[in-house]
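Thread: Palmitoyl thioesterase CPT1C, structure

OP (GT): Posting the sequence first so everyone is looking at the same thing. Length is 802 residues per the record. Can we get the structure tokens written out before standup tomorrow? I want them in the notebook alongside the other entries.
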Amino acid sequence: MAEAHQAVGFLPSLTSDRAEVEFSAPVLQEIYLSGLRSWKRHLSRFWNDFLTGMFPASPLSWLFLFSAIQLAWFLQLDPSLGLMEKIKELLPDWGGQHHRLRGVLAAALFASCLWGALIFTLHVALRLLLSYHGWLLEPHGAMSSLTKTWLALVRIFSGRHPMLFSYQRSLPRQPVPSVQDTVRKYLESVRPVLSDEDFDYTAILAQEFLRLQASLLQWYLWLKSWWASNYVSDWWEEFVYLRSRNSLMVNSNYYMMDFLYVTPTPVQAARAGNAVHALLLYRLRLNRQEILPTLLMGMRPLCSAQYEKIFNTTRIPGVPKDHIRHLRDSRHVAVFHRGRFFRVGTHSQSGLLSPRALEQQFQRILDDPSPACPHEEHLAALTAAPRDMWAQVRRSLKTQAEDALEAVEGAAFFVSLDSEPKGLTREDPTASLDAYAHALLAGRGHDRWFDKSFTLIVFSNGKLGLSVEHSWADCPISGHMWEFTLATECFQLGYSADGHCKGRPDPSLPQPQRLHWDLPDKMHLLISLALRGAKTLSGDIDCHVFPFSHFGKSFIKRCHLSSDSFIQMALQLAHFRDRGQFCLTYESTMTRLFLEGRTETVRSCTREACNFVRAMDDKEKTDPQCLTLFRLAVDKHQALLKAAMSGQGVDRHLFALYIMSQFLHLQSPFLDQVHSEQWQLATSQIPVQQVHLFDVHNHPDYVSSGGGFGPVSDHGYGVSYIFMGNDTITFHISNKKSSTKTDSHRLGQHIEAALLDVASLFQEGQHLKRGCRELGEDSGHRVNSLPCHTGGSRTSTTPTNF
């Protein structure tokens, strides 16, 4: 989600003297180290591999094979063709009385070798099958005979009852695309946003790159792809995230919201107790690998590697780069309330604390009248400071308050008990939702520990939210966890009639441990500087959230269109009306079809999209003509999306080529220009991955309302969206208040108008446009430029608790 900001910002960090020192290492050494890191990760997962390495076979299959060999031996048959006799000869001679034992051991060794060879063969066969991506490129609703055969073979070789990491050894590696194809696709993507003169210049640079540097860089990338698990992901993590020197707040973190219209309980401590318990239940299932791997089409597995670092993880600041610290286990959470830090244990001798016991601990913190120590209240603002500054201060802090710092950084996650209410209100739905989003994204600059993998935020009225650090994983991973948390704490754990967690308190529990920070005087000034910078950054961000309820996914499906492509084309129309020009558009998609894959960019502003947008504001164009152009734009977007998912995207390949050029000290004006581009529109869809957890028909309000991220550029927008059930789409928009060119509320109005305009091209959507046009004068577009923007209002008879 927020990765686009980091992807643009990583280039300046490579020009510093410190970064150049890192690039002085020979490129072959860097490729070797990349592979070494991959193998170290494989070794660290040894226990998981032991548990799941037998997949798709099972221990019973070994026992069956051993029994069959023994039976054949009893019947004087030798299925080993003499190998077992040779194994017996290699075994020690323990005397004649142990002759039968030697036979059994030889049979067991032969059965184990045969069983291991069978598993290896199954893994190789499955990896070859999973390398086929023809199913992605086929039209929606159509399936060729080849794909049907492929699905049948995948089903045969996939086994039964997979665990979370069962498929990791069978996933193919991400391929390195053809450099000629990548450059061609890049030039095609920038053509709509460049003038003829600029495009000709860019094309000349591209041809020079292909002639002089491309083949050498491509060869080294191919070598790395063969040796390391993924040719791009480790560099993406290091150079895009860990080397960034900017503040994590707004620039790197993103947020996830609670239910939009429902608050299960107004009791803050109770909501915190159930939510923390649900999160720890998710961690327990994660440790036991009871979370099912994500399967596309119910058959094609996605990489699960990113799940490993959800909990017990902290991004540690350093110079010239940060590093990610992950602990195997942690039995406490760190809690912040009114400027004070606490350590709250999550387990007793009998196991995980109950929700009621956790509520009791959080209530004790809320009732604690002790004040914050001087400057302790604003200490966490250091985690929102530029990373070099925080790295230097942390060294001193680790010396002065090592125990307190370890309690925070070694926690399972961070919990912020906010002293203010947030969420949707009836009195001012638009302003209240915007303030809710801003509080989750930035807070007050000193009440979130931005280094933690995620911070659970519980507001005084019981509303929840997450602030997530981006380097360790991407949004679908935290989204999967968040869906489980909301569904579990609300539907399974539940609340009593008085709003408290079910069960009884445990008076024998010790009080939460107050953390004490011994802060030297010289640190006070640094904390004040960090707080000032955090407040400036927070105050410059404008967030706007609105649920679009005129139609949703069900309407788009009836139009036989991809819901994501539908929204992306509407966003192109809205942005053009907002700014009067086209721009490079960043849409994030996943590459988890491959081992340790992360994300790729879909460049949504295509020539076909621009033709459609121009036609929509051309009064001489008829609706059928616009609809034809719209379908062409959607088809093009789908082709780009599928290519990106199958490892044939543009941006990650160009990124890896650029990093390789730096290691080789090859100057490429073309690659320099590519990575100096500004993404004025960054977009992301938040998928609902576990539909079975929510009953959208009987409880339509109990659906997560998604989340958002900060703008990518100073004069750009960040837009995310989520399909809430079948009839609502919630948008999260952000921009910088200091920009005179952007306005998130204005763009929200254009998005609603664009959606209604596009829907009106279809027969079922004709009534939607007319109802909105009546509210204002025509501004030259197909609908009024300031349409009937709901901004979060809702008329519903469903009982709600705001």
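GT: Both are above now. Quick notes for whoever picks this up: The longest strand covers residues 728-736. DSSP finds 28 helices and 20 strands in the chain.
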